[in-house]
Amino acid sequence: MCSAPVPEDKEAELVRLTGATWESVSRRGLRSVNADAAAVTTDPVSGRTAFVVADGIGDHLSALRAARTAATIAARAGAEHGARAGILAAQRELHRELPQADADCVLVIAVLPVADGQCDIAWVGDCRAYRWNGRVLHQITTDHTVAEFWRARGQTPPPRLNHLVTTSVRTVRPGDIGVAVTGASSGRLLLSTDGVHKKLDIVAVKAILAEANSAAMTADILVDSALRLGGTDNTTALVADRPAR
User: In Å, what is the CA distance from 121 to each residue of 37, 50, 85, 156?
Assistant: First the structure.
């Protein structure tokens, strides 16, 4: 098992203070590199925690660097200023640190408040956020893909268009960033790359999230199940649990 990057000990303690327990698991598929990344940061002033999963575009080191850089910056800025601001900060950092055009990625960020309240979510591309409240599984995000664009207009696109994204961290215009809010009082949050959710349908995802396993075991089952079903892409799942108060 290869876990995605985790915070330093001090930040991990701050994460625990929010009442959420979490774990991320990432495995390489039939690729040269695992260009997925995950990051978690808690802002020491507000106490908000930002969870991020990113997926590099392409099978090369520039994609890997882009995903890791964007995930780290988005988590840091998102915890302080909000999910959408996290994506914009990641975009600025990619342009500054990695000017080459092929250094790009897609990502999803969820910012969890300390007290009961709404979870702030933003995304570009086809990473997803789900929330399981113990009864209903809600897919919060909508993929920014060519296929989804045509489906929204009543067309049936060929399967290959499911993998062609229309936004990315490097190229997105501020008005095209996906934004949403969801309840955060209790329940289970899942952030995943497409290597997971494009092999597991929503029924399978719900069944796995509904099991009374730890966040770590749940994330591991999700990525392992996607690969066992023939997945060839890199697979990353971040699961965060917030128990009822």
Answer: 17, 9, 11, 28
Closest CA relative to residue 7, chosen from 80, 61, 75: 75
In terms of Cβ atoms closer than 10 Å to its own Cβ (0-12, 13-18, 19+), residue 126 is buried
Report the C-alpha gap between 242 and 64 in whole angstroms: 30
Reported residue count of the chain is 245
Q: Is 56 helix (H, G, I), strand (E, B) or coil?
A: strand
- The dihedral built from the CA positions of residue 2, 5, 10 and 12, taken in this order, carries a sign that is negative
Closest alpha carbon to 21 in 220, 186, 224: 186
Q: Strands 128-132, 118-124: parallel, antiparallel or unpaired by DSSP? A: unpaired
Q: 10-residue block means of pLDDT along the chain (245 residues)?
A: 37 44 95 97 94 97 98 98 98 97 97 86 98 94 95 91 95 98 83 97 96 93 97 96 74
